[in-house]
Amino acid sequence: MTIPYTERTLALVLRLLEEEHRDEALAIIASLLPADKAALFDALDPQVQEQLLPHVGPDDVADILEELHDDDAAALAESLDAEALVQALDEMEPDEAADLLGDLEPLLRLQALEGMAAADEVRPLLRYPDDSAGGLMTSDYYVFAETERVGQVFRRMRSEAPRDEEIPYIYAVDEQGRLTGVARLADLIRAHPEQPLRAIADPDMIRVSVEADQETAARLLQRYDLMALPVVDTAGRLVGVMSADDAMAALEEEASEDIYLASGIVSLRGQEAARSDLLVRGPIWRTWRVRAPFLLLTMLGGLVAGLVIHSYEEALEAVIVLAMFIPVVMTMGGNAGAQSTEIFIRGHALGQIETRRFLRYLLRELVIGLGMGIVLGALAGIIAGIWQGMPELGLVVELSLVCTMGLAASLGFLIPYGLVKLGADPAAGASPFITTIIDMTGVLVYFLLAIEFLGHLL
Amino acid sequence: MTIPYTERTLALVLRLLEEEHRDEALAIIASLLPADKAALFDALDPQVQEQLLPHVGPDDVADILEELHDDDAAALAESLDAEALVQALDEMEPDEAADLLGDLEPLLRLQALEGMAAADEVRPLLRYPDDSAGGLMTSDYYVFAETERVGQVFRRMRSEAPRDEEIPYIYAVDEQGRLTGVARLADLIRAHPEQPLRAIADPDMIRVSVEADQETAARLLQRYDLMALPVVDTAGRLVGVMSADDAMAALEEEASEDIYLASGIVSLRGQEAARSDLLVRGPIWRTWRVRAPFLLLTMLGGLVAGLVIHSYEEALEAVIVLAMFIPVVMTMGGNAGAQSTEIFIRGHALGQIETRRFLRYLLRELVIGLGMGIVLGALAGIIAGIWQGMPELGLVVELSLVCTMGLAASLGFLIPYGLVKLGADPAAGASPFITTIIDMTGVLVYFLLAIEFLGHLL
Question: Which CATH code, of 1.10.287.3510, 1.10.10.10, 3.20.20.70, 1.10.357.20, is assigned to A276-457?
Fold first, then answer.
C-alpha cells in the first residue's frame, strides 16, 4: 500500500522518531513512492538522517539517492559505509548510479566500482559529462538484432530481468551494433510472431549523438513528441537511450538557468549552477557569492552614471528641476532593456530567433523600443512641461526617453547576440552590461539634450 | 524515407515553388516529420500557404494543424473548405482536434463536429479549458476491464485500430469505469496469458483530477517520472490520459510565462498569453500592447521618485553633490529587488518555498539583502566619502544602500507572497509594484539620511 506524501506524513514520522518508534517511522518511509521518500528524508535534520541511514534498506537508500539533488546525494553517499554504498549503487538505475559515482571522491569511486555487481553497465556512462546526452542516457533498455523474429523477442523479454527504466520502445541493431530501427512496444504486441523485428521497426527514427548537449537532446524529444531518444556514437552504434523524464528535467534546469542568469543570479563565470533550492535554503554565504557579483557591476554602473551627473553639476545647479527627471530616464531605460534581453534570450533558447536573420529582428526591436519611447515619452514630457511650465523641459524628457528606450531595446538584442557569436551563453552576463551601459548613457543623453534645449537658462 | 529538415530543405521547397514545380515541393513536404512539416509550412508566406493548402493531403494538413501554435492553426483551419477541414480533424489526435475546435468560430465548430466521423471521441474533450488536465488529455489509449486475462488483452489490442498517441501503459477499470490499476506494456508482455489484468496492474498509481490545472498535472508526471498520467473525474472514473510530451509543453509554457511576467512582458491582466513567437515575430502593435503596460507603471514610479527629489530640492541645491549618488541608490534597490522576486517566484513554482514557513524564508532573505547592502554599501560609501572628502556623505550612501537593499529583498519576497495569498499568480504584476515602490523609497531614504547627517551643511 502506497501512502500519499503530505506534510502530515512528515509530521507523523517526526513524532514517531521523537518517541523513539524508529521501526514504525522506517515502515512509513519504505511505503512511500521514491520521489516522496527523498522529499521526506531531505526534510529531516542531518543528524537524524545519519542515525536513520544504517537502518534503511538498500533499495530505499537507492530510491533516496536517485531523487536527491546531486550535491546532497553525494554528501549522503559519502556518509554511508562502504558495503551499504555498493549495495545502494547496485540497486540504482545505471544512469543515476553513474551520475552519483561521478560526484564522489576519486578513491571512493574506484572502491565502489570494484565492489559493484553492475559495474560493467555503469562504467561506460561515466565517460560523458552530466549535461550531455551521454551523461543523461541509461543502459537499461531493450535492444535486439534486427533479424530476430517477434515471437523470439517476446520470449527473450520474458526471460530477461525486468527493466527499471520505462523505455517504451525496443531498438533494432545490425551485426555491428549500429542502430537500424525502433519499434513501439505497442507495435510489437500487434505484430505477427513470425515477422522479423526489421519489418516492424521504423528505420527513420530521430537519434542523437552521445556528445550532444542535454538541451539539444531534450529539444529533439520535445519537437518530435518522443518518449525516449536513442543515443549513438560516431559510428552509429547504439550506446544508450535518453528518456523523456530526463529531458523534462534538463529543460527545467535550462529554464531556471535562463531565469536566474537574466536577473544576474549566477556568478559571471557561469560556474555556479543556478540551483533554486540553494538560493532558497542553502548557506547564506553561498547565496551571496552567487548574487553579489552582478550587483557589484550594477553598482559600478550607478557610480559611473553619478560621475556623468557630477560633470553636469553646473547645469544642474542652474536648473535644479532637472534632477527631478533623472529617475524616470534611468528606470525606463533599464526596464525596457531588460524586456528586450529576455525576449532575445528566450526566443533564442526556443529556436525562434535565427541568428542568420538577426538584422531583421534587431530592426523590429528598435522600432518597438522607439515606438514605446515616443508614446510613453510624450506622456512624461507633457507632464513635465505643464507641471513646471517649461515646454522645453518637456521636450528634453520626451526626447531622452525616445533615445534611451530605442538604445535600450537595441542593446538588449545586440549584447546577447554578441555573446552567442562569441560562443558564450547569451544569458550569462548580458544583463549587468546592459544595465550598466543604459544607466550611463541614459543620464548622459538627458544632460546633453538639456544643454541643447535649455542652454539659454544655464 | 524521411528527409531531415534544415534551412536547405526550406530553400529547396521555395525554389521549386518559384519554378512552379508544385508537385515536387508537395512531395518533399509530405516526406517530412510532422513537426518539420509545420515548421516549413509556417515559414512560407501566407499567400503561398493558401495556394498550396488545397493540394496537401488530409493527413499532412492534420500534421501541420497539430504542430502549429493555436492561433496560427485556427487561422489556417478557417481558410480550409468545410470538407477538407472535417477530413483533417478526423486525422488529428483527439486532444489536438478538441483544442483546435475550441478555437474556431462557434458556427464553424458545430458544422465541423457534425461532419466528423470521430466526433464522439472529441466531444467530451471540448468541455475542459485548454490549460487543465482535461484540456490536455487524450482519449486515445488502451483501457480494459480488470477481470480480462492477459491473453485476451493481447487479442483485443491486435484487433483494434492502432493508437496514434504513444501511451505506453494499459489501464484497468472496474464495471463502473473507475480506474483500478495501471500496467506498463512491458509488464503485459512479460505476464502469463492466463493472468487477469488485475494481477499485473499496480493499484497505487498516481492520478489527477480532470479539473486540475496543467502545471499541477505536469509536476506530478515529472515528480514521479511517469510517461503518462491517468485523468479521472470526481467519481474516480477514467476519462482520459495526459502524456509526458503534453506535460513538457505545459512546463515550457509556464517557464516562459514566469520569465516574461518577471520582466513585465505580459499585460497585467494576465490575459495575453506569453507567446515567445508573438514577441519575436508577431505584429508590432500586439507586442507593444503586451510590453507597454509594465513600462507605464514603471514610468509612474520614476515620476513619483522625481517628486520625492523635487520635495528635497532645497537640500539638493545646498549640497549639489547629493545628485551624484541618486543613480547608485536607485539601481541597487531595483536590481536587488528583482533578484529576490525571481528567487521567490521560481522557488514557489518548483515547490521549494512552502508558504507555511514563509516567515523563515523572509527573514533569511532580509539577512541576505542587508548583508549585501552592508558590504556593497561600504564600498560605495568609501568611494563617495574619500572622493568628495566628506565622510558624512559616505555614511549617507552606505546607510542608504543598506536600507534600500534590505527593503528591496523583503519586498521582493513579500509582494509575490501577498499575491499568492490573494490567489493570484505571484509572477503577474509583482515586478512593476516592486520596481515602483523601491524607486520611490530608495530616493526618499537617501534624502532623509542626507538631512540627518548633512543637516549642518543645508
Answer: 1.10.357.20
